[in-house]
Write a structure and sequence with these properties.
This protein is α/β, with parallel strands linked by helices. Among the domains are: about 35 residues, no CATH class; about 200 residues, Rossmann fold (3-Layer(aba) Sandwich), CATH 3.40.50.1100. Helix content is about 45%, strand content about 15%. The protein contains 20 helices and 13 strands. The protein binds pyridoxal-5'-phosphate. The site of pyridoxal-5'-phosphate (PLP) has 17 residues, from helix 6 and helix 12.
Length: about 450
């Protein structure tokens, strides 16, 4: 499969090039040239297949021409080595728990796949790939942990000072080795802007091989479709109507929901999607008005969704060929402020004994308000509630347990580099690291 840019102003590339480059030279995002349609026998057989069988089949449809079957199978199986259960919250609202991986957030899936794929392409060569990643919290931890000690890869995590939770920060500032945490004096949009500017800077790109592990990278975002197939499989297996399934996705940069939309284009019979936003409502406004007006992001208790100009919006436009009308037939949207998010989190805990995290709460509420009779709603529970301990405890007024895996991170020593939100400072820092390339030889 070849990959093309959403701007159509640069050449088609191979999977390897798309992954290593991250962003296309014309500043567009890479997309597969076509969406392979999975056979209907496969869709019918889904309820009888395991997560790793499903992931391997979907991966092979997408990447099978580019990677040897046994290697692809290894990459996929290693990526998906944790459970992704579908849990009933009410009789027609189900939570897809994506937080059972190493950093307890759904981004583990894409980050682990991309790390393994880059490791695969780096076998037997000496090059060093520098991964730049902007994070509002969870991407940094998933990418840092996914890439920790991967040969030939160095990771720079850019995160906004004082805007990520203590637990999130500990997950990428305590690893060391090939992982460097850069604390930026600004907000998430500043971090994202710095990363994008770096990819376009001629001198930096001549001296360093740079790529992105944000969801603009196809190897991060496409594997996220595996679990839509698996969620559907579990729902049908438990007796839900196969044509009734609606996904509500807590959305920030819109990578997760875009992966789901592509799963639908590849033949998964998803009825429709609801993009659930916090107060950062540019997509919601686009849905109701047809106008896309990026805004400065505002801080909310669902901080991983505090994005004012979602990077994958262009992919959605690309899939639907810029037709607002066509988008409306498959995607709905909703927006909730912090007090609505808190209210849903509290009520769901009191009424159903199900503890949401603030992100999942946004999507759960969207289903409560928007699900039509006969529909089955699945919301993506994108992170473990304990990742937002202070917020969640403040809402339910009870202490929550921190899973062992999370507690481990808190024990490490924090090491980071503080930088202003000025691009020249980031550039200077990155160029200075070319001098100590040897750090990478140990990993
Ligand atoms: C990243 C993140 C999101 C948003 O996902 P996108 O793919 O950027 O839309 C939602 N919830 C959590 C917990 C996240 O970490």
């Amino acid at each position: 499969m070849k990959y093309r840019s959403t701007r159509n102003q640069s050449p088609e590339v191979t999977l390897e090039d798309a992954v290593v480059k991250g962003l296309a030279p014309d500043n567009g995002l890479y997309m597969p040239l076509s969406f392979p349609i999975l056979p209907s026998e496969f869709i019918k057989a889904l309820p009888s297949l395991s997560l790793s069988e499903i992931a391997t089949r979907v991966a092979s449809a997408l990447f099978g021409e580019d990677i040897k079957e046994c290697d692809l199978r290894n990459i996929t199986e290693e990526t998906m080595n944790f459970p992704i259960p579908l849990v009933e919250v009410t009789s027609d609202i189900l939570a897809l728990e994506l937080f059972h991986g190493p950093t307890l957030a759904f981004k583990d899936v894409g980050a682990r796949f991309m790390a393994r794929l880059l490791g695969y392409y780096n076998r037997g060569n000496e090059r060093i790939v520098n991964v730049l990643v902007a994070t509002s919290g969870d991407t940094g931890s998933a990418v840092a942990n996914g890439f920790y000690n991967v040969k030939g890869v160095r990771v720079f995590v850019l995160y906004p000072k004082d805007k990520v939770s203590k637990i999130q920060e500990a997950q990428f500032t305590t690893l060391g080795n090939n992982i460097t945490a850069l604390e930026i004096d600004g907000n998430f949009d500043d971090c994202q802007r710095l990363v994008k500017t770096a990819f376009l800077d001629k001198e930096l790109n001549e001296k360093l091989m740079l790529t992105s592990a944000n969801s603009i990278n196809i190897a991060r975002f496409l594997p996220q479709m595996f679990y839509y197939f698996y969620a559907y499989a579990q729902a049908v297996k438990s007796g839900k109507d196969p044509d009734s399934i609606v996904f509500a996705v807590p959305s920030g940069n819109f990578g997760n929901i875009t992966a789901g939309i592509i799963a639908k284009k590849m033949g998964l019979p998803i009825k429709r999607f609801i993009a659930a936003n916090n107060s950062n409502d540019v997509f919601y406004n686009y849905i109701i008005s047809g106008n896309y007006n990026p805004k400065k992001s505002v801080q909310t208790i669902a901080n991983a969704m505090d994005v004012g100009d979602p990077s994958n919006f262009v992919r959605i436009l690309d899939i639907y060929k810029d037709s607002h009308k066509d988008i409306l037939t498959e995607i709905d949207a909703s927006t909730y402020n912090d007090s609505q998010i808190s209210e849903t989190l509290l009520k769901t805990w009191q009424r159903f004994g199900y503890l949401l995290d603030p992100h999942g709460a946004v999507a759960c509420r969207a289903l409560e308000e928007k699900l039509k009779p006969g529909e089955t709603g699945i919301f993506l529970e994108t992170a473990h509630p304990a990742k937002f301990k202070e917020t969640v405890e403040g809402i339910i007024k009870e202490n929550i347990m921190i899973p062992e895996r999370l507690a481990e991170f808190m024990k490490g020593e924090k090491i980071n580099v503080e930088l202003s939100a000025d691009f020249s400072k980031l550039k200077e820092f990155l160029l200075s690291t070319t001098l100590d390339m040897r750090v990478n030889e140990v990993v």
